[in-house]
């Protein structure tokens, strides 16, 4: 009998690539899965990969083409769930990895979703508002056949927002002939969005950091915090840390890095960050070199930007006590080993940034019932789910002397593979 391949034919899987990082993470959890490890090919292979051409007419009458993707990694536990990003570096390898991490994240938190992700290779800053709308509507039409409220539910991600979700929802609804609010989450409140969704990922980062601090006796109150990224995740996280007595000493965005040992004025920085030049042009704090950001002595380091930010070399220079992954896949397996060897606790993305998808789940549920919750109820339910899931992962890590990432993957992979086993194969 021919031995199946490891699924690498789906992408280049070059060393250090996001998909390779994901595959290495799966390899590390295999010894802990018992008989379920025999079905690991389920996790190594995306269920469905769709690559589409996205042509639009520009404002000056030209035809422009963009490449779009939607990957459904695993649907054993429910419909696909994962964001849409617009970025010039979007590619198949990255989207496959992000979809796979969504599979793990949803299962780790025990949400009834599989993992999916999508994106368009574009710099949205080069498009007018009308061009951005045309791009979004055309992309939605191209992936229309595989998305739906009970099939695959997109959400905002890098460089996408509630307006883009509104265009996606409207386009899908026009194509199916009725209003389908549940096809996307992260929508405006007027179209069935949920209160608390915009800040949910940052809120979750704060909850998980607080719980980690309680267990490690490094309380958030009075702690120093350095955050990479000041967007949908980093900004609300910084605001919550500051509001709860922490000193946010460093912020890095795409334009530069600012530092203040006694703590930055986060409300003022938030007001200034959207102006040209970002945080670096705010006049707040001291401007420091990008590499110096990673070498700052701090209690908590929160990478909340893009994947593959911390490799083994950079991990050697990090001086944080705890690393909370606000971004997806910011730390390579080699860096994990270095950080573990140096006694730095890493709280993995699949639990640390799961607040966004958890409140997306709440939005999806509210859309189906047409009954909407208060923000207090959303935050209470979010805290309950995240703290409960994290407690189980922490206990497994402590009992088996494993990293938190391995413990999270044990929980998630067992759930996904057990669902696959119980469902069987059809036909």
What does this molecule look like?
This protein has 427 residues and is an alpha/beta fold. Among the domains are: 46-178, 3-Layer(aba) Sandwich (Rossmann fold); 200-347, NAD(P)-binding Rossmann-like Domain (Rossmann fold), CATH 3.40.50. Helix content is 42%, strand content 18%. It contains 15 helices and 12 strands. It has helices spanning 18-29, 41-44, 92-109, 129-142, 162-176, 200-216, 234-243, 266-272, 290-294, 312-315, 333-341, 349-352, 355-369, 375-400, 404-423; strands spanning 48-57, 63-74, 80-87, 114-121, 152-156, 224-228, 247-253, 256-259, 286-288, 297-303, 319-324, 345-347. The strands form 2 sheets. The chain has a 7-stranded mixed β-sheet with strand order 9-8-7-6-10-11-12, with helices on both faces. A 5-stranded mixed β-sheet has the order 1-2-4-3-5. α14 packs across α15. The longest helix is centred in the last third of the chain and has 26 residues, at 375-400. The radius of gyration is 21 Å and the shape is globular. The two termini are 21 Å apart. The relative contact order is 0.13. Residues 1-11 have low confidence and may be disordered.
